[in-house]
Design brief:
The chain has 683 residues and is of the alpha+beta class. The chain has 25 helices and 20 strands. α4 runs parallel beside α6, α17 runs antiparallel to α18 and α21 runs antiparallel to α22. The longest helix is centred in the C-terminal third of the chain and has 21 residues.
């Protein structure tokens, strides 16, 4: 009999609806029940496309003995981190403090009266393996510790709370100087260097900041080389889906070969933005526009709702056959060598082998993940071959640029007659923050290549979000098939305003009306300030709520940029575009609040450093519309463009409050911009 998660809207929660565990969603009733019955809360947090979350659901969470013990001695609660990033952030920080590492599934134990954590981990197998204890052993030990070691437990929690609790004072602000920024860039740079072992993540907040700060590096050519190398790894590695487009989450090896196969909207939006800026900076690697175009095809085909907004993610796992009990990791994306021989002619196979890592033994558990080792001079040269593989995967008559049916759950995936392989499940919920990152990517690509169709996709999605997510003076984070859920959090506001500003700039590039997007950005900034603004600077992660043990105000980056970093950069851009000094004052106040963090832990906060660069080097280029075209090809890291057809000189370049001599010729404008934004080459 399904448990109460069957009534939830979240795909991740509903995936656990058939577990024998008596799961609760996070709610006041569950928390009150745990406190009243003195039952330790077992809080398990994950997301629908997480591979190890899926594994644990099919193993430990489906085990009858484990379920019986858990139901008898604990109050089990499931949370979708994509619905409640505020809850996830608090308990992930706690896990990292306790164990030195984190990840999902996040499994953590809380004392029932105050919901404070005291033990946790990530994946637990049923039986001891991988150097990890069996989950039943963990449950028994935790319950024994809670019942018999109250003094130790209290002392442990008190120590942990010293780090979790918000500071009562932030200490003396550090001066917001060029030295602080340059030191931060220098310390963040090693994160982009290749490593001899371990996993490889895109690390887009880090790469974006370093690309923006090239000229301020101790060694700009070396840093440019690292930025370009990161882009090329993303374009050639197995992390990129060379057949269908789009980027997977990360690779499990240091050679960028074998990915964890889930595709997340937030990764793809950020990568599109980064590659477009890399091209604008001067990298003319032909795979850049080709991969962006192919990824936008994937977006159209598999990740766009009929209304124009974007779905959240696709699973790593999929079924090989409809009668399989469990899905298999990467089944939709991997190839058998014999399958390639059957699909391609000998000449085509040799041509593919000339550019990709192909062997009969494979590069992933006997199968092949397509990884490009020698890129062709013309990416289209391999187009006919890759289209054959696309037809094999998706079905012979499936167009590459038209909507493809979505498998919304395992039952749909197994129950439909697919023309090719069974696709992975797609989580179709709309997340405002992630949609905003993709809108920024599309708008940036539209600006760089003056591609009107990219702008149209971005504008359509943004208009839908404005029309549907803002209701009764509240902005909402989620939408499930037309129904909003969960009020917006800081990342939703910050990324959304960033997207509106990107649309404003892109509209100028493609000849569309720009002012409406700026007006919306200022409207939502006012709401952001009202709902989440802190008096002494920056923004709280989420509204104040009784179910949160702490109200966080974070500057940390992870797979997505820090909301505060993005928000402060937005404020500087709003100041430049509106000439309202209040925005600049807010930006300064936020940076001062986080200034000690930037000095002490720059490797944790690249987006705050990027915002500091905007604050220290804010530039507005005002020019007539007939003179703007040449600037879209140039990367101006901390500049906004403002079109003024009433301008008598050709252009006016202003740094914050100070304007330079009016530029009367293109050469004079170029000279002024060169002095502000020196061109960096890798030579």
């Amino acid at each position: 009999m399904p448990n109460r998660l069957s009534q939830c809207q979240s795909l991740y929660l509903r995936k656990h609806a058939e577990n024998p565990i008596d799961w609760w969603p996070w709610c006041d009733e569950a928390l009150a029940k745990a406190a009243a019955e003195d039952r330790v809360i077992f809080l398990s947090i994950g997301y629908s496309s997480c591979h190890w979350c899926t594994v644990m659901e099919g193993e430990a969470f489906s085990d009858l003995e484990i379920a019986a013990y858990l139901n008898a001695y604990f109050l089990p609660i499931k949370v979708d981190r994509e619905e409640r990033p505020d809850i996830d952030s608090i308990y992930m920080q706690a896990l990292q403090l306790m164990t030195g590492q984190g990840g999902w599934p996040l499994n953590i134990f809380l004392t029932p009266q105050d919901r404070r954590p005291f033990y946790g981990g990530t994946y637990f197998p049923v039986q001891p393996r991988y150097g990890r204890p069996g989950f039943l052993q963990v449950l028994q030990a935790v319950r024994r510790f809670y019942d018999q070691e109250k003094e130790k437990l209290t002392a442990h929690q008190a120590t942990l709370w010293q780090y979790l609790a918000p500071p009562t004072e932030t200490g003396k602000a550090v001066p917001l100087t060029e030295e602080l920024l340059r030191a931060g860039i220098d310390q963040v740079t090693p994160i982009l260097r290749d490593r001899p072992q371990g996993t490889c993540f895109p690390m887009m907040p880090y790469a974006q900041m370093l690309l923006q700060g090239l000229a301020l590096s101790p060694n700009p050519p070396e840093l440019l080389h690292l930025c370009r190398r990161r882009g090329h790894h993303l374009l050639q590695g197995g992390i990129y889906d060379h057949v269908g487009g789009g980027w997977h989450r990360y690779t499990v090896d240091p050679q960028w070969t074998v990915p964890h196969f889930e595709k997340m909207l937030y990764d793809n939006g950020q990568i599109v933005t980064y590659l477009a800026r890399l091209w604008q900076q001067g990298d003319r690697f032909p795979q850049i526009p080709a991969a962006i175009a192919q990824t936008i095809q994937w977006l159209d085909r598999e990740m766009t709702a009929p209304e124009g907004y974007f779905y959240a993610a696709q699973d790593a796992d999929s079924f090989v056959n409809a009668n399989d009990p469990e899905p298999e990791e990467g089944a939709f994306y991997c190839w058998q060598y014999a399958e390639l021989e059957q699909t391609l002619t000998p000449t085509e196979l040799r041509q593919l082998q000339a550019h990709f890592d192909l062997s009969a033994s494979g590069n992933f558990e006997g199968k092949i993940v397509l990884k490009q080792v020698r890129p062709p001079e013309d990416p289209q040269a391999l187009g006919p071959i890759l289209r054959k593989l696309f037809a094999r995967r998706y079905g012979a008559d499936t167009p590459m640029d038209q909507p493809f049916p979505v498998a919304t759950d395992n039952a749909t995936a197994k129950g439909r007659a697919w023309p090719g392989r069974i696709p992975p499940v797609t989580d179709t919920k709309m997340i405002l923050a992630w949609n905003s990152l993709m809108i920024t990517g599309l708008a940036t690509a539209a600006q760089v290549w003056r591609e009107h169709t990219y702008w149209q996709r971005a504008a359509k999605a943004a208009q839908w979000l404005h029309d549907h997510q803002y209701q009764q003076s509240k902005l909402y984070r989620l939408n499930y098939g037309g129904t909003v859920a969960e009020v917006a959090q800081a990342e939703d506001y910050a990324y959304w305003i960033q997207a509106l500003l990107a649309l404003h700039q892109a509209s100028l590039a493609v000849g569309e009306a720009a002012q409406p997007w700026l007006a919306l950005a200022t409207q939502y900034q006012t709401l952001f300030d009202q709902e989440l603004g802190a008096k002494d600077g920056g923004y709280y992660n989420a509204p104040e709520r009784a179910d949160l043990i702490v109200r966080q105000r974070e500057g940390l980056d992870n797979a997505t940029p820090s909301a505060n970093g993005v928000a402060i950069a937005n404020l500087v851009q709003l100041f430049l575009l509106t000439e309202n000094p209040t925005y600049l004052e807010q930006a300064e106040k936020g940076l001062r609040f986080f200034s000690q963090f930037m000095r002490e832990a720059p490797q944790s906060c690249p987006s705050l450093l990027a915002a500091l660069q905007w604050y220290l080097h804010p530039v507005c280029v005002q020019l007539r519309s007939d003179q703007a075209a040449s600037l879209w090809d140039r990367y101006l890291p901390t500049a906004v463009l403002k079109v003024r057809d009433d301008l008598e000189p050709m252009a006016l370049v202003c740094e914050g409050w100070r304007c330079r001599e009016p530029a009367l010729t293109a050469a004079q404008l170029e000279q002024q911009l060169d002095s502000l934004f020196p061109v960096v080459t890798d030579e």
